[in-house]
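Encode chain A's predicted structure.
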Amino acid sequence: MKVKCDFCGQMIDEGQATCPNCGGVMPTANRVASDQPKTIEELKRWYTDHNLPPEEKTRFFIGKDIKAPKAFGIYQASDGNFVVYKNKSDGERVVRYKGVDEGYAVNELYQRLRSEIVNQKANIANNGNNRATKKSGKLTIGDIFLTIIALIFFSPLTQGVLLIVIALIFTMFDHSPSNGYYRYNGNDYYYQGSSWYSYDTAGDSWSYASNSDELDSIINDDTDDDYRYTDHQGSLFEDSTWYNTGSSYSSSDSYDSYDWDSGSSWGDSSWDSGSSWDSSYTDWDSGW
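Encoded structure for chain A:
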């Protein structure tokens, strides 16, 4: 069985520690961290331990030869070879690996699954930010400017009422609380960029607050001091993927850029976003 060297692109015999063409270390020689799954059964346990949705949702089938379109999978064939595959949206199968090295095969699907977790979380974060923007409904400086321009050009009474209109607009202007931690009904929240985030004590993680409308109606720049606090116990919002931009990942990021063994909420690949996996985000028509 020939495999492709990731460094020079040449095909070499499977199982070699280094590439004879460029000297690059092959994945089969140093493929995994100590706690990374090396067998199909270990990958199954890793999948379960990281709280991933059912395989029908993620479309990652471990230990199964699925013929249906839109599927990733790994299984051991009757001839003893391990097969890693992807079925595209039209049903065409792409075989990523077929050979006797179970660890190498498992690593191929494991890396693709980690990449897809990043993709799913990034899309959820982006969609959440879009929803938060639409939900806000608060006037911006741009809204005020356009309103003034419209009044000047289209209303014959603007010279007499302009100051009154501006005053009324500013009374309706953004009364958002300051960015920071808040406590309400015994729960911890963080306010940032017109969005509320809630802390989950069980998972020691942060996600979009489901009661954002209620928080908006209660906490504003006049009352935020009544709810602000500085004694949060648990993972800090500033260390979460939501901090500042809403997500520290984008769809263009590669999972190779991150330390997956760091122990962070994204580093351990746990599915703690609080939202459903949507396989329509997956690129089903690429080669892998």
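The beta strands are 2-4, 11-13, 60-62, 71-76, 82-87, 93-99, 180-184, 187-192, 195-200, 205-208.
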